[in-house]
Amino acid sequence: MTSTLTTTQESQSQSQSESELQSETTTTFQIGDRIISSDDDHYGTIRYMGDVDGFAGMWYGIEWDDPTRGKHKGTIKQRTYFGCTGGGSGSFMKIEKLVGGTNLIHALLRKFGHKIDNYDDLYVLSNLDNKVPIELIGMEKIRERQQHLNGLVSINACDLKISTFNPTPAILNTLTCLEELNLSHNLLSNWKDIPDLLKQIPTLDKLILSENRMEVTDEFIDYISTNTATLQFNNIKTLVLNKTNIKWDRVVSLCKYMFRELQVLRLADNHIDSTKLKETEGTEQSEQQEESLEINSLFPSLSVLDLCFNTISSFNSIRNIGYLSKLEELNVSNNLIENIVFPKTMDDGSTTKIKGFGKLSTLYLSHNKITTVESIDELDLLPSLVDLSLRENPILYTFKSTVESNQSTKKVDMITQSRLNIIPRITSLLAFNLTKITDLERKDSEIYFLSEFFKPDIPINLQSPKIKHLVQIYGEPSYTK
């Protein structure tokens, strides 16, 4: 005989389990902890704990991630309690308004199912005082999900208020097959906790920590630099640190001592303006040789680098990444790049080649400030480039329009004109602005380009290299502008 628990009873049981899990949430804080405001769900970091002149009780000084959320810079009535990196992003809160974090396992249990220690203890008494097992509606499904938690290959743990990681062997025994872990937008506060996590997930291949404001202290760098034998996690091939406010020099240190075998590194929206490692002295050639050796020693396996939504203004400021021997994909969209110039070398005194970017096949340059065709011509020197995105750059709006009509038609014409003018300039290109270039489109655009820019009154040997190349294919045009 089996009794079926009613919806109300099931709800009460789940509510009790939820309450038990909630008790694992942090209720005491220290400086540096990450919190959420119970008023509006804004995220912030505790920068001060103590008294505030003129106000009774204990106060917590918060630096908010959103600079518009705060009221000051940590100073009230000429007394400075803490500092803010982002303008007036500070305010004071009472502890009742602060929501703390929980540990990883409890957060996962809350997401994937409620924990009940002994399912066999769930029963009711019959009229004869006999124990009758309860069949909870949906409970078997929850139990199966718990049992299979350790069989999951990928877990999305975003927005679960995770602030700490369970000590060994809790995670080790629970996530036995995990290859990808997404911890974006949680309450993680310090990189010193990450090694303990990674030691418990030796199968992990991809780690996503985006939108966590995690401090990388000098002490932590010293620690990992002197313990590389136990803190190198060569199993991590993909590391995503978007919108974490991490500095480039800290990225370099983390990869140097912890992540030697990274293949994919994503650093979007971190205010990075340069990838230079240090200021070097000597000739330009010696500097480039030093840059090449050093950058390859730091990222020997890196093939994909994402630097979009940063503050890079020129390729010269990221010149050293061009020496990465395995780099195939570079994303520098949504930066401040105005022109493109590569360091060059001459081959046999006639053929121009650039130094670096030898294997770069995919380049994302959309939403920058490129204005000149010389920058586009420079891209033709990339020997392996096949896929280019250049949307929303001023250069695309400089090509002449042959249609005077409504805005929609002008937009279509702008796209057409940009393809006609850019595709011929980059010989190796197979896709432009996320659209494949067909053989027919390439032929039509090259013939159009030749008719536009061939100068019949100038000897062929004095024409531009691109025109000379196209004449070899199609011959001199019969009609020119």
TrEMBL record:
InterPro entries: CAP-Gly_dom_sf, CAP-Gly_domain, Leu-rich_rpt, Leu-rich_rpt_typical-subtyp, LRR_dom_sf. The keyword Hydrolase does not apply. It is found in: Cytoplasm. Residues 50-94 form the CAP-Gly domain. Its main location: cytoplasm. Gene3D superfamilies: CAP Gly-rich-like domain, Ribonuclease Inhibitor. GO terms for cellular component: cytoplasm. Keywords: Chaperone, Cytoplasm, Leucine-rich repeat, Repeat. Residues 1-27 are annotated as: Disordered. Belongs to the TBCE family. Supercomplex made of cofactors A to E. Cofactors A and D function by capturing and stabilizing tubulin in a quasi-native conformation. Cofactor E binds to the cofactor D-tubulin complex; interaction with cofactor C then causes the release of tubulin polypeptides that are committed to the native state. This is Tubulin binding cofactor E. The gene is tbcE.
